[in-house]
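Title: [Solved] Roadblock/LC7 domain-containing protein 3D structure

Original question kept below for reference.
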Amino acid sequence: MIQQRANFDWMLKELADGVPGIQQIVVLSADGLRIARYGGDPDAADRVAAACAGLQSLAGAVAGEIPNSDGRMRMVIIEINGGYFYLMSAGPNAYLAVLADQTAEPGLMSNRMRDLVVRIGAHLTSPPRRNGQTV
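Solution (posted by the thread starter after getting help):
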């Protein structure tokens, strides 16, 4: 299991406190490993991180089909019954995911997530693993 980086705690809490409706925040590597989390169950955060790896790959494939696109996913928003799921690129090989209930306001969420990514983007980069390397 990945150890959470304690220096993210206050920044993730600040996002949760600033946007009503946030249920869980997960910072993850491109290969779907949890780097940090705020709120919710740790096992659920691991499952969300793993699912995000596939989602960001799919979004990147779709982005590559858009003319004049650089092929990189910046943000995915999924509206589901009862809430929202947000996934945002947070630097090379790192992503920020947020699960929120239906009271969350999508515009505010997007803006606050972008602000957080700008503030801590350099700390969120996760170098790709080499064969046999563990985290």
